[in-house]
Structures are given as structure tokens and as C-alpha cells.
Amino acid sequence: MSEPLLEVSHLTKRYGQTEVLHDVSFSVRQGEVVVILGPSGCGKSTLLRCINALEPVQSGEIRLGGAPIDRSAKNLPALRRRIGMVFQSYELFPHLTVLDNILLAPCKVLKKKREEVLEEARALLKRVGLLEKENSYPRELSGGQKQRVAIVRALCMHPELLLFDEVTAALDPEMVREVLDVMLDLAREGKTMLIVTHEMQFARAVADRVLFLDGGGIAEEAAPDEFFDRPKTERAKQFLNMFEFDAVRPEKKTE
Ligand code: ADP
Q1: Mind listing the pLDDT tens digit of every residue in the chain (255 residues)?
Q2: CA–CA separation, 202 vs 197, rounded Å?
């Protein structure tokens, strides 16, 4: 079994006096897709933000490929480049075209030549069905299209780990599928992903492992079928009862 790419050990995170995460430990192996589920406010976003060093932590350690992610470390920018994050709110620059949004970080941060990245950017845009939008501005796109551009932008940096924070939560229902399909495709391709979502069918289909976060910690960690069919804790049962499931089992990503 491969070494973990991401290791979170005994992580504790407080906002002021409020402890949001308490002694959280887990790891993600190369090529693994881990889905984090849990009730609203249980700290899922905070956990992703700590992993990307967007938030200071009070204790514990986060390692990527063995290197500690420490907000004060000199190599933090280099470490951060190895992690791609996609947010609920897209975070695209409104004054830049789709293509320029995508090329900005590879050119500015990785110092690549525009021509070098252009081909890949276009290939990725084509893959998500948006090649014809390369010269459009974000305001000219639907939410689902914006989110697919945000995913392409993250991919163009070749991150080793992709973090997705409720990326379909702000989308109209008809646009959710187009974004989830892109993520399923990335999972099939073997990308290492840590995903926060409220889309339960998708979670079950895409996950290699589910972490159920509750009360500041990991209340359950299980294979998706085990978690959805036989949740162990009362809290997980209550949580799952809030969602309606189709009788139809979702497509598995290995098929
Ligand atoms: P989730 O993603 O599971 O909905 P969050 O990680 O967004 O949960 O939030 C966890 C808890 O931390 C919530 O109680 C929230 O109000 C609190 N919180 C989140 N961000 C901040 C912040 N910047 N300052 C203070 N409290 C925060």
C-alpha cells in the first residue's frame, strides 16, 4: 500500500474560545478519493482551509508528501502550489477572460510561458465542454460553467492533491450534474481528492472512503457502501435520514 500523500495528525483548531476541530487525525493516499460528510457547521470547510494553510491551527500537524504544512514555513508557497482548491464561490477574476483566468497562476506563479500552458488549458476546457467559452468573461457564464472553469484552473497547476469545498452548493439543480461528472471523471483518472459535499449519491459513487465529521472530530470512517448502508453511530444515522435516497444505486467509478 502506498505511503500517505496527506497526513493530518492530532489537529486542533479554535476560533477564539470555540473549538471547531479537536484532535483530528486521518490520512489520504495517492490516488485516493476521500469524501468528508457531516452536518452544517461541523468544521468541514475549516478542515480543508487548515490543510491549505489558509487558517492557523492551535495544535497538531499536517504533512504533504512528508513535508509539514506550516503557515510560517519558508517553503509554504511551494507546498501550497502542490494543493489545488476549488471553492463554492468559484473565485474567478471578473475582469479576465476564461482563458486568462486559467493561465494566470501557471504564468505568474510557475513562470511558464503562455504558449506552453495554452495547449493544455484548451485541452482541459475541451474536456469539460467549454472550449468555445475561452474568450468569455465569468459574468457571461452560468454557475455550472464557472465552476468547471475553476476546476480547469486548479488542474492547470498540476496539484498533487485537490480539495473541493461544496463546489455545487451554490448551483441550480440542473447544473450540479455537469460539475459532478467532471469530478467523477477526475476520480476515474486517479487524481487524489478530498471532497466536502452534500450530494450523497455522488459521495457514494466517487468515494474510496468516507469521513463523517461531527462534534469536532471524525465520528466515523468507512468505505462508502458500509457508511451508507450500515452507519454505526446514531449521529450518522440521523444525518443520513435527512437525505432522500433513490432506490437506484449510483454508477461506481471503477466501471
Ligand atoms: P462546515 O463547513 O462543516 O459547515 P465550517 O468549517 O464552515 O463548517 O464552520 C465550523 C464552525 O466554525 C462553525 O460554527 C462556524 O460558525 C465557525 N467558523 C467558521 N469560520 C469562522 C471564522 N472565520 N471565525 C469564527 N468562527 C468561524
Answers
A1: 567 999 999 999 999 999 999 999 999 999 999 999 999 999 999 999 999 999 999 999 999 999 999 888 888 888 889 999 999 999 999 999 999 999 999 999 999 999 989 999 999 999 999 999 999 999 999 999 999 999 999 999 999 999 999 999 999 988 999 999 999 999 999 999 999 999 999 999 999 999 999 999 999 999 999 999 999 999 999 999 988 654 444 454 444
A2: 8
Residue nearest to atom 7 of ligand 1 (CA): 45
Q: How far is CA 233 from CA 101, 222, 230, in A?
A: 44, 12, 9
| Architecture, CATH, for domain 4-240 | 3-Layer(aba) Sandwich (3.40)
CA distance 2 to 97: 40
Measured from the CB, is residue 216 less than 6 Å from ligand 1?
no
The CB density around residue 51, as the number of other CB atoms within 10 Å, is: 22
Query: Which contacts qualify for 180-183: CB closer than 8 Å, 24 or more apart?
Result: 180/206, 182/128, 182/148, 182/151, 183/151
Residue 202 Cα to ligand 1 midpoint, Å, equals: 24
Residue 41 near ligand 1, beta carbon < 6 Å = yes
Evaluate: CB of 254 within 6 angstroms of ligand 1: no
Q: Ligand 1 in contact with 40 (CB < 6 A)?
A: yes
